[in-house]
Amino acid sequence: MSTALDLLRDVRTYVFDYDGTLVRGAVPIAGAVETIRRLQDAGRRVGVVTNNSYLDSAELSQRLEQQGFAIPPVAVHTAVSASADAALSRAGRGRVLCAGSAGLERALRERGLHVVSEDPDVVVAGMDRALSFERLSNAVRAVLRGAYFIGVNLDRLFIDTNQIGPGGGALVTAIAYAAGREPDLIVGKPSGVLLTSALHGLNSESTTSCMVGDNPETDMSAARAVGMLALLVRTGVATTRTGQRTAAAAPPDLAIDSVADLPAAAGLIF
Ligand SMILES: [Mg+2]
Pairing with 73, which of 1, 134, 174, 226 sits 20 to 30 Å away (CA)? Predict the structure, then answer.
């Protein structure tokens, strides 16, 4: 049987999930900052990806810096930024309907797109705390009329330190169900779109890269989708009661209690 060291020996690039993996709430998980530094000192490339529906890559990069992580902006990829990039490439007339957060709407505007409520080229749907029946209806009508339909993620639940609520996927799925049509593109994990952009940004191959995350449904499945090693940590949703797992949950190649244990598992502590 392969040991952790066997599996991790050839890994040159580590891509970390953010919530539940590097931080819990706004607080870095004990040992996470040191793990990142140790991997970087050992010459490993390090990136961060998140399905988070309200932060763009620049905002997350800034937050990571405030929390003590030295990760360059180019190595930070959020589903918000990747969704806005995808909308830009699909919006022929530049008209986009945003059924998502203020952060997503800002990312769309920053790319020069017109955020409209009717007759869009593209509908982008994600976590929306200000969801109204009107906005939902506009999105459904646009998808029925054939707008390109992008889902930021398929997260079932939104989990933070104080509460559990429906995730971005609950809204994406509501629109898809009403319109009778699946999204044309899902950006966040378990889709491989976000990880593929992250690997591209890190100039790395999937075969020598490892995805580190706390969620079997999203992180581990996405790792498998792009052919990365899948490493589960037990500091996030894997330890939370979140209802019955869907079929999307994928088993990890390897599991450790926390990112704090990664340098030892990878043989980087001498
Ligand atoms: Mg997570």
Answer: 226
